[in-house]
Amino acid sequence: MPGPFFNDLLPEEPSLCYIRYMSHDKQIREVKSATLLRFNKVWQQNFQANRNAIAKNPGVIALKNKFRNLPCVVVGAGPSLDKNIRFLNRAQNKAIIISCDAALKPLMAQGIVPDFVVCLDPQEDISRFLVNVPHKGIILVVPSIVHPHVLELWEGEVLFFNKFAPDIPTLVEIQKMVPHIGILTPGGTVLSVTYDLAFQAGSTPIIFVGQDLSYPKKKSHSHESDAAGQGLKFMMEKQKNDLVLEIDINGQSLRTLKSMSVSKKWFNWAFTTWKRDNSLIVSNCSEAGILTDHCTLEVLTEAIYKHCTQKLNVPWILKKALKRKSRD
Description:
The chain has helices spanning 4-7, 24-56, 81-84, 104-109, 148-153, 169-177, 190-200, 232-238, 258-273, 300-307, 314-322; strands at 72-75, 96-100, 116-118, 139-143, 157-163, 183-184, 206-209, 243-247, 253-257, 282-284, 296-297. By secondary structure, the protein is an alpha/beta fold. α2 (24-56) packs across α9. The chain starts with a helix and ends in a 6-residue tail after the last helix. 47% of the residues are buried.
């Protein structure tokens, strides 16, 4: 069990003996087993509560190829977002901006309104990412098993998706009941389905920002995000049994969670095996973190200057694509 490393303030360089290198296969098994044990009943309850809302709102399938060859910025809430967030206003209205739920408040604090905000977690707790910010002009993208309170508080448009998990019987059955909404494939973190949304919509390049999948010396998330909670020390004490090591873009060992390590492998799989009929460029512009393989590593300002060159009328594109239904 971890000792002084977790009881005292974090040293500049953590004692690596307290954090494990693990085989990716073992990580995947552990993460999947924990997920099933924790959420199987929650998934079923949430889905039943959401049936009416699913019937009244479109699914992500409506966006297939609708952003073909348009740039897309995928925003995570990793600590590196604090460095680059001030540059994202240069991409506003020149790229599709898709935010994970925890990055919404940091973006809005900078006056950046994303086109979409994506959730994955079925727990009510994620509501904290969506309150006390305006919802106008933002489409919420949620799984069919999202907690119903999230739908109750959201004042804007909603898109549903099924979590594609062919080895999880409960999710397979749910998908069979509402196949028309489409699927997104999860891979350990919400940024996996956020990437899948951009991929299926045909975007290129897909530019990652705040995609650390790891924890540097002092922070767990962007400081404006509610996910930052009580800080890195508290988070690491709470999840000390789930910490592993990965290598970052600078060749250094960084702490991360098993789920994030699994997500790195998921991205490597997606980058190398997914196919579509238009070309794809993936650029990781986080300038930090562990996502290094099968993508271009770029400075964000350079990527925006290179790829985000023309004005986009995103509301018009969405109006054509969604054929919105009433939310009575």
